[in-house]
Design brief:
Ubiquitin-like (UB roll), two-stranded antiparallel ribbon, about 20% strand
Length: about 140
């Protein structure tokens, strides 16, 4: 039995592509070398491909509640990598192009020193006098 294919339109870009009911929306878009939905981890863990389904039927599998709450999912906000079309779909991209972990990948900035470090304090203990033993310094 062959799988059905559905038309997916992205309202933000006007992009359209066909997606099999066996492929998630993100994979369908990538297979056709289309752009429009931001691509992240492809496994539901980063939230980059967050979309709003404006029209159409779909099947969703488990996705991270860190990125999509139950209330959002009930209103059609889902992760494209976790959604499979069951009819033609119209969607709006909500995801950002920056993954959370990339925000922390910036190089650390160190404060500029205000003055050179002070030399270590000299010992206050009496040092034994150096003896020359009759040898001259070169």
């Amino acid at each position: 039995m062959s799988s059905r294919s559905f038309r997916v339109s992205i309202s933000n870009t006007g992009e359209e592509f066909a997606c099999s009911e066996d492929d998630n929306l993100l994979k369908g878009m990538e297979q056709l070398s289309r752009k429009g939905i931001p691509v992240g981890c492809r496994g539901g863990g980063c939230g980059v491909c967050k979309i709003q389904i404006d029209r159409g039927e779909y099947r969703a599998i488990k996705m991270s509640r860190s990125y999509v709450t139950r209330e959002e999912e009930a209103s059609g906000i889902v992760l494209a990598c976790r959604v499979f079309p069951q009819s033609d779909i119209s969607l709006t991209v909500l995801g950002k192009m920056v993954k959370k972990f990339e925000l922390y990948a910036l190089p650390a900035q160190r404060p500029e020193p205000t003055s050179p470090p002070a030399p270590p304090p000299e010992s206050t203990a009496c040092a034994a006098p150096q003896q020359n033993h009759g040898q001259e310094k070169p």
